[in-house]
Design a protein that fits this description.
Helix content: 25-40%
Oligomer: single chain
Strand content: 25-35%
Largest sheet: 8 strands, antiparallel
Number of helices: 17
Distance between the termini: 70 Å
Strand order of the largest sheet: 14-13-10-11-12-15-22-20
Structural class: alpha+beta
Shape: globular
């Protein structure tokens, strides 16, 4: 076995590899840029080596710098994680030349399958059904438009060396094809150092289902079930689960066998993933093969009990697979939610800054399913910590929260509670959106496609309105919590003599434009909150000042993130963000007479929606712009974001230019 493994990556995947290497007794070496000097993976590793400035194209993806770090450390093997150099054949070749083991597939398999154009040609030659498209290189935007027209809109423009949603655009007409081609090339060049683009037909009602394969260098190969990855935003996966609620055993077997056959055809040896598009009739089409560990690999580990990182290391050391296909049993259900530093209330635009609070739910000690009395497993793969910073230079993923249950319903319910228990402050994040998805009827039914987010949230995410029953549960909990806070305030020392303060039972609770008159009767075990004769029993562990309240209402769990507002609480639960005011009847009467404070009018301004760099300004002062017209392009976290006019108008003033760094809500331009 190896005496030392260098991890050519950062963030949560580097931490993930370190955990397994530590379990195997193998020392690890981390590499880091200036921006990651205090990162969690650097703290966890046995050694750490600095490799350059923050931009990835000056550090993490510079092969010579990584090779120097390997030489300095004396590592015998390198695990590339995902992204960066994980599917770079030149990197694998350099390792081979240096006599260092690559914890991944052979160089030839990377070249054959890692390049999307080549992999599609191989799949077609092997008789695998593929999505119609143009596999050749595309010289310019005019050719992209011509090819798109021949294939028929809509089409997908994709970076040949791409991954993680980078360098991908959907085009529905000639203008979008032309615009998308240039943006895809730019993103591909910045993220991968390879700006080649290809085009394929965009299937409008697809499910994205992938097969996990595991092969060794002795000709053995197996598949470990599938993962449902249909809930995506901008072609980047957000929620994954295993198994898929859509597949039957016959389709699973057919897809698995085809995936293994394809892997064997290119001499694959390591963990890899074959991705398919599956239509409503369970017809499946080869999409691509990822010759690396997938971001969503934990859900496969949770339903099979197989540590994929451990298997990759064993295969790289030349060992045979100890698992046969007959040994693979799918047990229970697992769900993964990707927590991103993206603000869902601002169109999911990147958010950077310091994590002033980061408190994930408690993990189960073992990642093996079924180990707790409640038959629930919670796992959180992360690369951050409280007080750390989310950098503008890298992918905005903060953590991968996973739950396992004996069935899908149990895994979903465990995820709901875990999301409500996850405390993140200091940056914008997508926790509210993830909670909304877990409660969405279409997700609960399992009847979703890759168009789920676009179809269900066409105007973006604007928060969740809780149902009446849920509102009453929150109101009951807040009334009981407010009474506890009032009792504490009544006991403050230094009161005037003969002015004892008494806490009453009658209160008014307002939230989400609803008003409830309640009566709170407390005892040693909790409180009974009555709504016009209907009573709810509230119990829980909350002390004034706590930012998390773990309550039960009528015996059902209710987890609330609690903040303070004047006269009540800011409550976040199940995707809703509520201002809850608890007042005495007289206070409530007076509050109803107060005028409502309105936000300032910014309708004639273009505000910067996230911290970023101005790539270009597309209009000039005095120009008349039409609805949907591109106004400027902002780059943040390796993604180009085109800001468009929401309505017709005339540009009166431009406050920024190409190359300017902007903060959130900086005014880019103004309109008459």
């Amino acid at each position: 076995m190896f005496n030392k493994i260098l991890i050519a990556n950062r963030g949560e995947i580097a931490c993930r590899v370190i955990k397994t290497a530590r379990k195997m007794g193998i020392p690890t070496v981390a590499i880091y840029s200036d921006a990651d000097a205090k990162a969690l993976h650097v703290q966890m590793a046995d050694e750490a080596i600095h490799i350059g400035p923050p931009p990835a194209n000056q550090s993490y993806i510079v092969i010579d710098k990584v090779m120097d770090a390997i030489k300095q450390s004396g590592a015998q093997a390198v695990h590339p994680g995902y992204g960066f150099l994980s599917e770079n054949a030149k990197f694998a070749e350099a390792l081979e030349a240096a006599g260092v083991a690559f914890v991944g597939p052979p160089k030839g398999a990377i070249e054959s399958m890692g390049d999307k154009i080549t992999s599609k040609k191989i799949a077609q030659d092997a008789g695998v059904s593929t999505v119609p498209g143009y596999m050749g290189l595309i010289e310019d935007a005019d050719e992209a438009v011509k090819i798109s027209t021949e294939i028929g809109y809509p089409v997908m423009l994709k970076a040949s060396a791409g991954g993680g949603g980078k360098g991908m655009r959907i085009a529905w007409n000639d203008e979008e094809a032309r615009e998308g081609f240039q943006s895809s090339k730019n993103e591909a060049a910045n993220s991968f150092g390879d700006d080649r683009i290809f085009i394929e037909k965009f299937v409008t009602q697809p499910r994205h289902i992938e097969i996990q394969v595991l092969c060794d260098s002795h000709g053995n190969g197996i598949y470990l079930g599938e993962r449902e990855c249909s809930i995506q935003r901008r072609n980047q996966k957000v929620v994954e689960e295993a198994p898929s609620p859509f597949l039957d055993e016959a389709t699973r077997k057919a897809m698995g066998e085809q995936a293994v056959a394809l892997a064997k055809a290119v001499g694959y040896a390591s963990a890899g993933t074959v991705e398919f598009i599956v239509d409503g009739d369970k017809n499946f089409y080869f999409l691509e093969m990822n010759t690396r560990l997938q971001v969503e690999h934990p859900v496969t580990e949770l339903i099979t009990g197989v540590d994929l990182v451990e298997q990759m290391i064993l295969v790289a050391a030349g060992e045979k697979l100890s698992i046969t296909q007959d040994d693979v049993k799918l047990n229970g259900w697992a769900i993964e939610n990707r927590l991103y530093a993206e603000d869902p209330y601002r169109g999911f635009l990147p958010s950077i800054g310091r994590l002033t609070r980061y408190r994930p739910p408690a993990e189960t000690e073992s990642y093996s399913p079924g180990v707790t009395p409640e038959s629930i497993v919670i796992r959180n793969d992360t690369g951050v910590y409280e007080g750390g910073e989310i950098s503008m230079y890298y992918d905005p993923m903060i953590a991968k929260l996973c739950t396992w249950g004996p069935d899908r319903a149990a895994a979903i319910e465990a995820m709901r509670v875990a999301l409500d228990s996850f405390e993140v402050e200091g940056i914008g994040h997508n926790l509210p959106f993830l909670s909304a998805v877990m409660d969405h009827p279409k997700f609960i039914s399992g009847d979703m496609t890759t168009a789920f987010i676009a179809e269900e949230y066409p105007e973006g995410f604007e928060g969740v309105d809780l149902a009446e029953d849920d509102l009453r549960r929150v109101a009951a909990a807040c009334a009981a919590m407010h009474r506890v806070a009032e009792i504490r305030r009544a006991r403050v020392s230094g009161r005037m003599d003969n002015h004892e303060r008494k806490v009453g039972k009658d209160w008014n609770v307002t939230l989400q434009a609803q008003s409830y008159d309640v009566v709170v009767n407390a005892d040693q075990d909790g409180a009974t909150v009555s709504f016009n004769g209907t009573a709810m029993r509230v119990a829980g562990d909350w002390t004034p000042g706590d930012q998390l309240a773990e309550m039960t209402v009528d015996g059902a769990p209710l987890v609330l993130k609690v903040g303070k507002v004047s006269g009540g609480f800011r409550i976040r639960t199940r995707g809703a963000d509520l201002k809850v005011h608890v007042r005495s009847p007289r206070q409530a009467e007076l509050a109803r007479l107060m005028p409502e404070k309105l936000p300032p009018d910014t309708s004639k301004m273009l505000l910067c929606p996230m911290p970023g760099l101005v790539v270009k300004i597309d209009v000039a002062e005095g120009d008349e712009v039409q609805e949907g017209q591109a106004l400027c392009t902002i780059e943040a976290m390796k993604m180009e974001n085109i800001l468009r006019a929401e309505k017709k108008g005339i540009v009166s003033k431009i406050n920024a230019g190409a190359g300017d760094s902007l903060a959130v809500d900086d005014v880019i331009m103004e309109f008459e």
